[in-house]
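Regression test case RT-17, inverse folding.

Input:
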């Protein structure tokens, strides 16, 4: 899962996702965030 807007992070964290990588995107104007979720979690 990837997202760019930082405002999306709380939503995905509530769903059990964790940030695993962040990198500059679009010429450094924003950050692309990669998230993963443990599919075995309750």
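Golden output:
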């Amino acid at each position: 899962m990837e997202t760019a807007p930082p405002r999306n992070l709380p939503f995905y964290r509530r769903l059990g996702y964790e940030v695993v990588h962040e990198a500059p995107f679009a010429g450094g104007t924003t950050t692309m965030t990669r998230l993963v979720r443990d599919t075995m979690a309750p």
